[in-house]
Amino acid sequence: MENTEKGPTMTDAFNSKLGESPLKREIEYHDYIYPKISIVIPTLNNSQNIAVTLNRLLKESYPDFEVIIIDAGSTDRTLEIINSFFDSRVRICSVTTYQLYEMLNKGISLATGEYINFLAPGDFHLSPYTIKTIMDLVLENNNPHLAYGACLLRDGKSEPRILYRELSTSLLKKGLQPTSIQTFWFHKDLFSIIGKFRTHFKVRGELDLFCRFALSPGLQQASTSHVIIDFDLKRLNLRDMTLHFKETFQIVYRYFGFFTAFKWLFIQKDIGRMIKLWLYSIKMAFVRAR
Question: Among residues of the chain, what percentage have pLDDT more than 70?
Answer without folding.
Answer: 81
